[in-house]
Amino acid sequence: MSHANGGHPSSSAGAGATDRGGSSQRLDIVEGARPMFGPGSQFDELFNDPRWALAMIRATVLEAAHPQIGAALIDNSTFVAHPWRRLRNTLLSLQRMFGADDHVRLREAARLNRLHARLNGTDARNRPYDAMDPGARAWVVATLFESTVTMCRLSGQPLEQAVMERLYGEFRAFLAALGGEPGHLPYTLNEFWPYYDRVVEEELENTDAMRIILYKLFDHLPAPPLLSGLPTLWATGRAVAGPVIGAITVASLPEPFRRRAGLPEVPGTQTLMQGAYLAVGLARFLPDNWTRAEGIADLLALSPESDDPRARTVTALADRMKRAGALLRLITPLPSSLQPMAQTGTHRSAQEFFHEVLDQTGDGYLDWPDLAAMARELSSRLDLDEPEETRLYNAYAHWWRELQADLDTDGDGRISAQEYSTAVPSLAGPALIRVAEVLFDVTDKDGNQSIDADEYRALFQTAFHRDTTGAYGTYTRSAFVKEFLSFMSGRQRSTPYDPLLTEA
Amino acid sequence: MIDIIEAARAAGVEWLSLYAFSTENWRRPSAEVDFLMHLVRRVVRKHAPLLHARGIRCRFLGATDPRIPQSLARDFADLMTLTSNSRGMTLTVAFDHGGRRDIVEAARSLIHSGIPADAVTEQTFAAHLPFPDTPDVDLVIRTSGEQRISNFMLWQVAYAEWVFPPVLWPDFRAPHFLQCLHTYQQRERRFGGVLPNQNGEP
């Protein structure tokens, strides 16, 4: 096992009692020491703990309260419009970073770095932000570590000192694997707590991003794909659970920060919060497979038609859900008056298309981060490396400039739903065709000028199923470009792009 | 209509198709079309639980036109979803259907899937029609004394027997249906040749 910053002896602090001597320049090869990553590591033991869900939410809130991270989230993140997709991407990424395979880790680190290098700008108060800022990156890792420790403490099973130190070492190694400068996260656990308290007291703010996560996201959380056929059921459950999750999270935040950010103190929530952590903690005694974090997120996000081996079970479950939903809708009495007949089925309105597809960040405007989010999602799906990834981003950037020139009539730099729908959009300009062509090139991995079954699957993760709109066997360049354009400009529904870009 | 469905099921018919609305029907006055759409929606919703309980698998052939109201399209989809696991009779409702269009769609689908021209046979072609599991039609009942095909399932009716009862469709009931079945059983089906054993004969 090797390391991104291999040879930095201080990085091994806390990796295990036997690793203290510094006799080896290699990090974790000392006989008897536990591995830093993969099975046997401390992280691996905790990763599937169901309490992680609460800890992750808490960590995300603490990250969003950091001004730089908050600004980056507000501008670029799709978590409001597509929280389930984002959750799955995050868990997958953590799993790759903490897995046993060094090659996978290096590749994922490079991918994350490329992704974050594209996220920078200035916030609403004109302060610059940069997702590659070493301090901000260290803080993300710090919140993940601290929330894990806190989750154990709050549920009445605090970690022992040695375990905590080992875990801290793993998180530092995680930051190091990302290429972070080691100095930004203190070397030892003893130095960590003052650092953490100082950031909480001095740097965190009541940011927009934090408020959105706490109050808006849980109230408006869209249904995960599995439950998307039952909007009423989902809304009912969410109306109860949403505010509770928000309150639990607020109650678990550090007291000095709650005070300074003016977060409400609701009587009884401390008890509720500890009860919740305890109750979720007890779920650890359920059979292993029931509580694997990424498994659950995957199942919720798994499209029933995908070719994943588990899809059969999910399909069966989703089918039952769908049939129940269908029956419910069919037996609901109709209003007696005639329904308006204007709505159409296969085309969506310009407004719908704007909100379902174009506005990926869900802020009501079409802006570069929306298109960047599409490029990001496609890159992740296709597992692109350089230089393909940059080609795809460049094509999107080019398209964005074309859109801006054509549609931004009030010149505020972004495109409102109004501007979009009044322009009677002619999106299929040369730049969009270029996007389609680049997408074809990067999907066509073997370069045989047609997209065959495997490549098609990689892009859409869906099983083959014929419907009346056409069979998807192989795609020639022109057929592919044509279908992409008809989705992006003709606003055709029921193409494979729908699950890719519209699903929550 | 539900009357006929029940009669067919009881008589052991496994595949029943009804022609509800053709692509040409869009040319009717819009008030009439609107009324018809609303009526269909009521009928679908009224009978959905019964169709489900009887184990009748329902599907809609055609039903792609954007002029179909979204609410109706939703009900169609719901009924198909609800009964998708039923294994009794399969009821195909041809709605906004056109036989020629289906054939064109199949041709398009064949070309999309890149099958070489020489490999196209009647079987491969049929596999690209909508609902390719639909067998050849045995009997077509054309009511109201009309004697036209009207662009109905052109591919599937190649060897069908036809009967033309004079009774109008709104008056067509179970006894009429059974009478048509009886007429069919008297026919000698040869499929262009001479077959020793026929479907439905002792």
> β content of chain B, as a range?
5-15%
Q: Work out the helix count of chain A.
A: 22
pLDDT below 50 for ≥5 consecutive residues: which ranges of chain A? 1-32, 287-291, 337-346, 462-472
Separation of termini of chain B?
A: 30 Å
- Mean of residue pLDDT values of chain B: 87
Give the overall shape of chain A, derived from the CA principal axes. Answer: globular
The CATH architecture assignment of chain B turns out to be 3-Layer(aba) Sandwich
What's the helical proportion of residues of chain A?
A: 55-70%
The number of helical runs of chain B is 6
Order of helices and strands of chain A: HHHHHEEHHHHHHHHHHEHHEHHEHEHH
Judged by helices, strands and strand pairing, the structural class of chain B is alpha/beta
Rg from alpha-carbon coordinates of chain A: 24 Å
Kindly estimate the percentage of residues of chain A that lie in beta strands according to DSSP: under 5%
Total beta-strand segments of chain B: 5
* Lateral arrangement of strands in the main beta sheet of chain B: 1-3-2
Q: What is the averaged pLDDT score of chain A?
A: 72
Description:
The complex is a heterodimer of chains A (504) and B (202). Chain A is an all-alpha fold. Chain A has 2 domains: 1-330, no CATH class; 350-501, Orthogonal Bundle (Recoverin, domain 1), CATH 1.10.238.10. Chain A contains 22 helices and 6 strands. Chain A has a two-stranded antiparallel sheet. In chain A, strands 3-4 form a two-stranded antiparallel ribbon. The two termini of chain A are 37 Å apart. The relative contact order of chain A is 0.10. Mean pLDDT of chain B is 87; it is low at 198-202. Chain B has helices spanning 2-10, 30-53, 70-82, 99-112, 122-127, 174-186; strands at residues 15-22, 57-62, 90-97, 139-141, 161-163. Chain B has 202 residues and is of the alpha/beta class. In chain B, 39% of the residues lie in helices and 14% in strands. In chain B, the strands form 2 sheets. Chain B has a 3-stranded parallel sheet with strand order 1-3-2, sandwiched between helices. In chain B, strands 4-5 form a two-stranded parallel ribbon. Chain A binds chain B through residues 319, 322-323, 325-327, 329-331, 334, 338-339, 341, 343-347, 466, 468, 470-474, 479, and chain B through 34, 37-38, 41-42, 44-45, 48-49, 52, 64, 66-71, 73-75, 77-79, 81-82, 84-85, 105, 108-110, 112-114, 128, 130, 132.
